[in-house]
Amino acid sequence: MASKNPVKGFVRCHMPNCGQVATVHAVGEHRIITEGNPPRNKRNTGRLYYNCPSCGFQQGKGEAFQTFITASMQPSREALKAVSEPAPMPVDIPKPKPVEAVKHDTVTQELAPPKPSPSRLEAAKPYLLALVALVTLFLMFQPKKDTQAHGKPNNASA
User: Fold this and answer.
1) End-to-end CA distance of the chain
2) Is the pTM of this model over 0.70?
3) pLDDT at 137
C-alpha cells in the first residue's frame, strides 16, 4: 500500500530474494503538512520507514532499521541504481565423506535386574501403624462409664 507521507529517499529492500527499490518515508509528515498538527502517537513522529512495492515489506521500528535506512538512503532512484552491490561470494559446499562401518569390540555386560518397587501394602504399612496408634490413644483417653453388676448405671431408678 502506498504511503500518504511524502517520499524522503530510496533504499534497496533487504528481504531475501527481493532487492527492489523501496521508498523511504517519515512517520507523521502527512498529517503535519495537511492539518498542521502532529499525529496522536507523537513519540514515533519523524521516524523513518520504508515500503517495498515488490514484496510489500514495510518496516522502520528499532534502532537497527533506523541506522540501516539512514546509512543506505539515496535521494533518487537513479543514485540508488548507480550504486553497485557487491557480487555474492561463491559458497563452497563440502563433499560428505563416506562413513565406515563401526565395529563393536566391547561385550555388553548384563545389568542387574532393577529392584522391584515396594508393593502397595509395604508402602502403606507406616500409615496403617500410625492409624492404629491414634485409635488406641483415642480409646485410652475416653472417659469410662460407671456401671454396677448388672450393667445398669448408678443413677438409674429401680
Assistant:
1) 109
2) no
3) 93
